[in-house]
Amino acid sequence: MALTKKKMYAGTLSTGSATLYTTVAAGAVVKEVVVTNKTAVAVTVTIVIGGVSVLTTYVLDVAGTKDATVILALSTVLNSGDLITGLASTGASVDCIISGVEG
């Protein structure tokens, strides 16, 4: 079975929990999640992978500081239909990119 590299999500998180990725029938592996605050105010972020919180109201410091960005290196297996969801405490404040493989 061939594995396909995949940008699972790239965008800005909203204030309501939103589906960022839905796993394909062949399954997937999440390899990396990056979240960064791009504003001058500290914000919180929540990321849930396959029903399990990996960041729960995690505080991201103001943009330009070392604590404004979090990089999670993972090897989390997702089954068909599993979701990745996310939200931020303030709209248009947190950019997120999720990478992995499908298949």
Task: Tell me what the structure shows.
There is one protein chain. With 103 residues, the chain is mostly beta strands. 0% of the residues lie in helices and 63% in strands. It contains no helices and eight strands. It has strands at 4-12, 18-22, 28-37, 43-49, 52-60, 69-78, 83-88, 94-102. It has a four-stranded antiparallel beta sheet with strand order 1-8-3-6, with no helix packed on it. It starts with a strand and ends with a strand. The mean pLDDT is 97.
What is this structure's SSE topology?
Blueprint: E1 4-12, E2 18-22, E3 28-37, E4 43-49, E5 52-60, E6 69-78, E7 83-88, E8 94-102
Antiparallel strand pairs: 1-8, 2-7, 3-6, 3-8, 4-5, 4-7
Compact description:
The protein is mostly beta strands and 103 residues long.
Q: What is the oligomeric state here?
A: single chain
Q: What profile does the largest beta sheet have?
A: 4 strands, antiparallel
Uncertain residue segments: none
As a percent range, the share of strand residues is: over 45%
| Largest sheet: spatial strand order | 1-8-3-6
State the helix count: 0
Beta strands, count: 8
**Helix and strand run:** EEEEEEEE
Derived from helix and strand composition plus strand pairing, the structural class reads mainly beta
Features:
elongated; 63% strand; mainly beta; four-stranded antiparallel sheet; 8 strands; 103 residues
